[in-house]
Amino acid sequence: MSTEVVVILDAGSQYGKIIDRRVRELNVFTQILPLQTCASVVKEIGCHCIIISGGPSSVHNGEAPDFDPEIFNLGIPILGICYGMQLINQTFGGTVETKVFREDGMFETELDRSCPIFKDLNQSRQSVLLTHGDSVHQVAKDFSIVGKSNGLVTAIASNDKKIYGVQFHPEVDLTINGKQILKTFLYNISGLKGNYTVTNREAACIHKIKTMVGKSKVLVLVSGGVDSTVLATLCYKALDPSQVVAIHVDNGFMRKNESQEVLKALKLVGVDVKLVCAANNFYNSTTTLHVISRVLSQTLFPEEKRKIIGDTFMKIVDYEAHAIGLTIDDCFLAQGTLRPDLIESASKLVSSNADAIKTHHNDTELVRALRARGRVLEPLQDFHKDEVRILGRQLGLPENTLMRHPFPGPGLAIRVICAEEAFLLGYLIVIKLKNLIIYRYNNSMVSKSKSGHRFTVLLQKIHAVITSEEEREMLRKYTDRFQMKAVLLPIKSVGVQGDCRTYSYVVGLSSAEAKPDWETLFFMAKTIPRICHNVNRITYIFGEAVNDQIQDVTPTILSFNVLSTLRQCDNIAHSVLAQHNVVNKISQMPVVLIPLHFDRDTLCRGPSCQRSVVLRPFITNDFMTGLAAQPGKHIPEEVVLEMAKNIKSVPGISRVLYDLTSKPPGTTEWE
Ligand SMILES: Nc1ncnc2c1ncn2[C@@H]1O[C@H](COP(=O)(O)OP(=O)(O)OP(=O)(O)O)[C@@H](O)[C@H]1O
Ligand SMILES: O=c1[nH]c(=O)c2[nH+]cn([C@@H]3O[C@H](COP(=O)(O)O)[C@@H](O)[C@H]3O)c2[nH]1
Ligand SMILES: NC(=O)CC[C@H](N)C(=O)O
Ligand SMILES: [Mg+2]
Description:
Elements: E1 5-10, H1 16-25, E2 29-34, H2 39-45, E3 49-52, E4 78-81, H3 83-91, E5 96-111, E6 125-136, E7 144-149, E8 152-158, E9 163-166, H4 178-189, H5 201-213, E10 217-221, H6 226-238, E11 244-250, H7 258-268, E12 273-277, H8 279-283, H9 302-323, E13 331-334, H10 339-344, H11 365-372, E14 376-377, H12 385-394, H13 399-402, H14 427-438, H15 443-448, H16 452-465, H17 469-481, E15 485-497, E16 500-510, H18 518-531, E17 535-541, H19 560-579, E18 591-594, E19 611-615, E20 618-619, E21 627-628, H20 637-648, E22 653-659
Parallel strand pairs: 1-2, 1-3, 3-4, 4-9, 10-11, 10-13, 11-12, 13-14, 16-17, 19-22
Antiparallel strand pairs: 5-6, 5-7, 7-8, 8-9, 15-16, 17-22, 18-19, 20-21
Helix pairs in contact: 5-6, 6-12, 14-16, 17-18, 19-20
Binding site for ATP: 223-229
Organism: Ciona savignyi
Domain GMPS ATP-PPase: 196-404
């Protein structure tokens, strides 16, 4: 029987590889091709159906990637996801518009189960991941609406043409029954049988290492995390041990006692590592962006930090190669690079249309140049984190290594929000927030409102977003039951919305009430970014209500005292997790230092000299999407309160905050 093939046309989605994974897990072979691929090429492959991915572009403006409309005349079933659905609707004569609000996160939608693609679902109401700013406005002729949420079209279908579109992302974990929808599309609609088995990925990795390295030496960069530990173990398995030179770099941004613990753990799994102490190299390093950058320890911006760190790793490797009498051209560099590292860096290795969300240190221009010269070995580049753990288990690595929380290569350097001045351009957002929260959103307020026209206009803006009576009732209920204040924090964070990078506003919610109402806070964390588009992060500020808008920041760079303060807070937080044995209940917990000094007397205008700490416990499988851990649901509330209390006692810490943001619209890290 010939291998069945699904072609995935990649419009630059963050989740293109996840579509690939889901289809292969459903025993169907895949080929990911650029959206621009000609229909004749697709036809030549003999594919049985097509999936068009999401993407960062807008179908209705000039920068959208080209595509060949002939793909719609191949007579094979097609499923369009998000951008893919918008493209289908527009191609068949419908319209797509950028709406007044965004949806980024998990939402409920009603799906028509009489439609063949939804017929295997257990119920019509489904929790799905939506992340878009454009929506179907006029549905194309010959298509029917088969899904709706908040007044928006979430699915369209032409049963005759066997062409379907979904605004949500069935490929990701945050769409609860997404895999069922894909299975129905593959088996029932496209008539596939599922004759593909996922090849033995360990054997494929071993083969790749042997073929590339031959008898040369390979410098394996090991961080102590699961990816590079699995990589090192594979190298030892594939090669003669004398060929393998494992290097762990202490870049000066490690957690407390990190490098010592890493060397001990690696030795236990048979990886003999050379420790390179390179803190000063990193602190004083620069790189060439458009101009020579500042030295790293003075750098403010996330992308600059990342690029300097990535390039410095490469310079260290080059030095270490020379130290053993080699040049980078007669040995190989091995990294535990994963798919998320590459897609978020918009590497052309994995997508021709993706937006750069953040440059991962192991995929900078310098790394790409070495890769282009064939000097970089990355056998895990098609893996996601959970798949690496499965392979690591097969290799017999201990659970504590496999389940170790990821720690990013740039380390604490991307967990200090550096700043010299406040970022405060968003007064309109503040007004919307006040309208939404401080005036206790409530229709009855409109009739009694003393604010008159302005208040009514803003309330209309909210009603343009919160369209269903059910949702308005929920908003009334939540804003009535927990009195909140909202301030715009004068800093920015990196997020991902509609497959695009965002670097924008953070909101701080607080309350005079003694106990945080987490259900209300998490509801607001989902609602606020829908109304205030350029808010990509929502936090809760422990302690007294914060009534005053902070207008300044504590000047912050990657100085020794800043790093040691963060290192101490990070250690306190993770020690509490360990003491309560809840480390494995969450996937990762970035602890972030922000340059904000709360609780200063506005009259005497005391200088901003303290900083605050954000706790970001996160739940995910593949780190492409995920949820903030909810206290009392994913993590005991008393553990969170204990972390906040213990960190608050660290000298120089003004407040402790809790990150309530899912991915999207936020990302796991703040930078
Ligand atoms: N301190 C370090 N020393 C040597 N190599 C490193 C270091 N930090 C990162 N790397 C390299 O960069 C790659 C990506 O870094 P990353 O922080 O993701 O670590 P990891 O090994 O992938 O594990 P994890 O993601 O679970 O922390 C690693 O696989 C490793 O090859
Ligand atoms: O090796 C790395 N180099 C990097 O530059 C980097 N940036 C983020 N991360 C880790 O990647 C995962 C996803 O993080 P984000 O949701 O913030 O993109 C999370 O596990 C992050 O900790 C990095 N790992
Ligand atoms: N996730 C996506 O495919 C987003 C599609 C488009 N960029 C939008 O924002 O609507
Ligand atoms: Mg990694």
